[in-house]
Write a sequence for this structure.
DNA sequence: AATATGCACAACCGCCAAAGA
DNA sequence: TTCTTTGGCGGTTGTGCATAT
């Protein structure tokens, strides 16, 4: 409400983050936790606005993020969720804890949008039938849940994967490092080393390649150590920081996390996507699982 | 070999809603 | 109750690399 953008203050740096800035930010979050972003620039000396710090953390530095190489199952899930939720990237990301909303959004816009609209599939999403306006889709889920469920069923039936294909690991391309990964590789290694120490602090981190499970576990342990996870859930915000998603949880169900899992299980109880990729089977109810 | 075009992704911008004073 | 502050979300843009011409 007339509030000037935080970045309007003078001397705020913009553009790509440097490895040094990343290290500073990671160090800060390691010490103070991923909140109180307004204090980050002053506390760290970073010439970045608080919003930029938060974005950098949630979209890039946050542990447990998987980057690039979306699997077929992830792609199917995105298509299905998009048909159901519309462009609610954050809500979609809550089903895919290893992916950020920004990643999903980018993947949709660059890979799926054209293909999806070209084939005519997902016409409902295109027409916005299920892409309710802001603040309304949660209510739709609550009041029109049967219709929503039916829509999801239809979406699933369109792309239903045969059981044999579900367990089959499609041959992945030889993991060509993406441009960004390649250009940032050396820098990312430094960050990874720091994060490695971080996860060790949590007690279950493994040097080198750490599974997402162990990563999230150790991160969870870290925040338990800090004793701050409760404050996170106390604000009514989800670990992923999804204010609006948590609103859906509150509106549709009794409690924050577990009830959302129940809704999710209910919506997806045909078993599509369950267990195979660790996507929607992730216990979202644990506020410490991801942040 | 040089240039044009397309693609992928990181980051920014504006708006909105929740929380607090 | 109203206003301000802060965090979060979705849309959009900018930049660098790859591929085509």
């Amino acid at each position: 409400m007339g509030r000037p953008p935080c970045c309007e203050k003078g001397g705020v740096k913009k553009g790509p983050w440097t490895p040094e800035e990343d290290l500073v930010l990671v160090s800060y979050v390691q010490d103070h936790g991923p909140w109180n972003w307004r204090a980050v620039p002053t506390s760290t000396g970073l010439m970045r606005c608080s919003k930029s710090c938060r974005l950098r953390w949630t979209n890039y530095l946050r542990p447990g993020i998987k980057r690039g190489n979306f699997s077929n199952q992830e792609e199917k899930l995105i298509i299905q969720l998009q048909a159901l939720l519309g462009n609610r990237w954050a809500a979609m990301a809550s089903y895919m804890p290893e992916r950020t909303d920004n990643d999903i959004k980018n993947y949709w816009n660059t890979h799926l949008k054209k293909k999806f609209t070209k084939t005519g599939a997902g016409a409902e999403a295109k027409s916005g039938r299920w892409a309710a306006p802001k603040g309304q889709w949660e209510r739709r889920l609550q009041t029109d849940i049967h219709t929503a469920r039916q829509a999801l069923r239809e979406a699933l039936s369109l792309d239903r994967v045969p059981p044999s294909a579900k367990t089959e690991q499609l041959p992945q391309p030889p993991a060509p490092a993406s441009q960004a990964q390649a250009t940032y590789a050396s820098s990312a290694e430094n960050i990874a080393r720091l994060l490695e120490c971080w996860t060790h602090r949590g007690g279950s981190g493994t040097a080198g390649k750490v599974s997402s499970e162990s990563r999230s576990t150790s991160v969870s342990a870290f925040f338990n150590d800090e004793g701050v996870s409760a404050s996170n859930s106390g604000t009514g915000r989800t670990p992923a920081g999804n204010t609006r998603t948590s609103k859906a949880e509150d509106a549709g169900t009794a409690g924050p996390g577990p009830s959302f899992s129940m809704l999710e299980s209910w919506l997806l109880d045909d078993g599509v996507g369950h267990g195979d990729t660790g996507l929607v089977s992730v216990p979202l109810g644990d506020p410490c699982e991801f942040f």
Residues 179-202 of chain A form the longest helix (24 residues). Chain A has 15 helices and no strands. Residues 1-5, 120-149, 154-190, 201-291 of chain A have pLDDT under 50 and may be disordered.
